[in-house]
Amino acid sequence: MSVVVSLLLSVDAPASTLHFADDVAFRAAWITITQVPLVFFLSTKRGPINILAGIPYDKINWLHKWVGRFIFISATTHVIIMKSSISVVDILLSHNKGVTVVRYGIASYFLLIWTAVSSILPIRRWSYRAFYINHWISTLAFLMVVLQHVPKYATTPIYMAFGFVALDKISIFVSILWINVSVRPLQPRLAKFRRAPGRARLVKGYPVEMLEPHNLSAPTDVKESTTMIRVCNVPISWRPGQHVRLYLPALGAFEVHPFTPANCSSIAVPPPLPPRGSQDIERRRSASSTSSNRSSDMSLMIRAHSGLTRRLKEFHTEWLRLPCPNATVSAMATSLTAYVDGPYGNPPVWENFENLVLIATSTGVSFALSIMDYLEQLCFSDVSKLRTQRIRFIWIVRHMDPQFEASVAELLRRYSTMMRDSGVQIETDFYVTCSQSEIKSSMAEIDQFAHLRPRLSRYGSGDRMLTIRNPDEIYDEWEEEERQWAEMEALEELQMKEIDPFVDTYDASSIYSKDGDRAGPYEGDGYAASETSTLLDGGNDEQSGRPSNTFSEVRLTFDETAVLDVTRPLSSPLQSPSLPRRKPSQKTCQCALVQYQRRKLRDPAKSSFDSTSYGVRPDIARIISGVVESDQHDKLMVAVCANNSVSRQANKAVSQAKFAFARGQRATDVEVFTEGFS
After folding, report:
1. Which of 220, 240, 427, 466 gives a 20 to 30 Å CA spacing to 368?
2. Where along the chain is composition biased (Polar residues) (predicted)?
3. pTM score, whole prediction
4. CB-hemisphere CA count at 13 Å for 495?
């Protein structure tokens, strides 16, 4: 605010006269009006700056925000000064034409305030769709209202803003039609005997294929799981690191979302031998014509959050329930049609860097996989163009998703095989930051049914036989627990009658403390019906006649609940009536359960990644510094597609390397390419 005011008063400032304040107010108004077309110019996705300069819209979005803030500050300066010369009564009651213009100015200023307030980060994170719709409605309304406020000789910037908006939307609409709508000729059986022109049909959009998980034995019921789809026969080429905007009308009529493909478009492979005859020349011509119109399948990794992504996950779940989804031609398998807009972005030439560091979090791994796919295709088509010698692949996730991990590992294994054969050194690291995902030694060391197994003699093993000290002590504990339960039920019955004498003991549904506060629902059937019970807790032992509702320290064995450290059963079933019964905890992550099920389903095999870490966060600065110091002469690129925290760490480490290059401590510069998301 102080910078803007100082510029208004210092650079070609008006003379100090009696109308100095009014001159400053009108100057602020002119600055506001002239900046309006600029803020709309910087918001275009296919505007002149995007097409001519090759600058993607996401790289200049920060400038769009700062110009908007500058407009808000200059407009506030204009309103504050002009308000001091006009009373509120005149604004509300006067019928003067000049006051009507002032009313339009106040309305446009309130629209500007609403646009600024509704654009703050928490609202964008809460619902980007609501923010986007509100932002466009508010800004267009601001243009129409401010057009009534400014004089006619000052309307040119407003019409320029309308022109930039119209140009952007028309170019996007034309691009969508060009990519997604085509006319394809029909090929009848006897087409080669017909001389008349054949028929054609109009094709809109592209079919969507659902991909099966690579590991069907892994658990699937995880929070915010990832769905992998394939958009077939897309007739555009995209480079690794670019993103597209996807529209699925069957799942969201008014939702368009950006996604980064996990692969790149197919690279044209030259024929192995030159043509030797006229027939070979004709074949080469036909091959070149088909290669110019080649299409590629686009693989997308979409994490389920809400709206379109959640409905896509539900659609994929229903598709997996089909008897044989890949072999059965059903309506569900062919009902989804996708419309693609793009590609957007201007990534660097990846093969020109000797050393690559790829850092990704969550579904940002598709960004890194597209680079790996491109380099793998380059190894097959023209390895002479590839200068890359080392690749460091780092993938960071918050919670475990076995299906997603298996899919990424399979793609990474396929991409890495060809590059390693071409002499490229690849190092892959995988991090799960959730503390519940840490592998505990107790998962494999303790046998929860050891006390039920028969005693087998093991000759020559040297192990001591498993014995129980004081075996009759457990029966005494059972009797003591039964006595405690009887006392507790009598105490609860007495408390219930003290509160309401008309409530029957067997109809009581709540337990109350001595202070009269409600403690929680009474489940019945003793402690075995509580939230910490397991399958071994309920029921009675028909042979012995003793209840199996025992939780003494002697009988308590290792179970899944104790492994996961989610809830630990008490050593005694007796609970103080003065303490409230603990409510069931909210649904937390299932990393520990996934880790435990993975150990039960199969033996832990060798991971597809060179390094796998659970329950820890990587030191991005140390990793980048180690790569920078390993070879001072390699041309290094750090590519990041991660959240704001990881992106800031990577940019800070690269900035330090750039300072070292500026001071002459490093022979080559270090570049960074960030594809951030929140």
Report:
1. 220
2. 530-549
3. 0.70
4. 21
The stretches of 394-522 forming alpha helices (DSSP H) are 402-421, 442-445, 473-499
Q: Which residues pair with 396 in a beta bridge?
A: 361, 431
Average pLDDT over every residue of 642-661 = 89
In contact, 149 and 97? CB cutoff 8 Å:
no
pLDDT of residue 401: 81
d(CA 543, CA 628): 71
| pLDDT tens per residue, range 415-452 | 888 888 888 999 999 998 887 777 665 444 455 566 66
Beta carbons within 10 angstroms of residue 277's beta carbon: 8
Beta strand spans in 433-589 (E): 510-512, 518-521
Report the b/e string of 511-546 with b at 16+ CB within 10 A: bbeeeeeebeeeeeebbbebebbeeebeeeeeeeee
Map residue 361 onto helix, strand or coil.
Answer: strand
- Of 374, 368, 381, the closest CA to residue 351 belongs to 374
**Token pair for 89:** 């009564």
CA distance 642 to 672: 13
- Residue 318: partners with Cβ closer than 8 Å, 6 or more residues away: 332
CB atoms within 10 A of CB 636: 25
Distance, CA of 316 to CA of 312 (rounded, Å) = 6
First to last CA, the chain: 28
Distances (CA, A) of 51 to 178, 210, 674: 16, 34, 21
**What tokens appear for 409 in the block?**
């590992």
Name the β-bridge partners of 201.
Answer: 184
Are the C-beta atoms of residues 571 and 552 closer than 8 Å to each other? yes
DSSP assignment of 31-74: HHHHHHHHHHHTT-SSSHHHHHS---GGGSHHHHHHHHHHHHHH
Question: How far are the Cα atoms of 36, 69, 223, 297 from residue 64, in angstroms, in the given order?
Answer: 11, 9, 35, 34
Phi, psi of 172 (to 5 degrees): -65, -40
List the Cα angle 37/41/47 in 5-degree steps.
145
Which residue bears the tokens 């505007």? 47
Amino acid residing at 88 = V
DSSP 93: H
Could you count the other beta carbons within 10 Å of the beta carbon of residue 243?
Answer: 23
Q: How far apart are CA 554 and CA 271, in angstroms?
A: 76
Nearest to 430 by CA among 623, 614, 621: 614
Q: Given this model, what pLDDT does residue 292 score? A: 43
How far, in whole angstroms, is CA 645 from its chain's centroid?
Answer: 14
Whether the CB-CB separation of 584 and 560 falls below 8 Å is answered with no
Residues 6+ apart with CB under 8 A from 169: none
**Mean pLDDT to the nearest integer, 576-596:** 54
Instruction: Give yes or no for a cis peptide into 48 (omega within 30° of 0).
Output: no
Residue showing tokens 């993103």 = 243
8 Å CB contact between 399 and 437: yes
- Is the model more confident about 109 or about 584? 109
Q: What is the pLDDT of residue 570?
A: 40
Amino acid residing at 261? P
Residue with tokens 């509100």: 134
Q: How far apart are CA 2 and CA 132, in angstroms?
A: 30
Q: CA angle at residue 232 from 230 to 237, to 5 degrees?
A: 100
Q: Are 364 and 677 in contact (CB under 8 A)?
A: yes
Contact call for residues 355 and 365 (beta carbons, < 8 A): no
Nearest-10 Cα torsion for 606, 608, 611, 612: -80
One-letter identity of residue 294: R
State how far the alpha carbon of 248 is from the alpha carbons of 128, 258, 334, in Å: 17, 12, 13
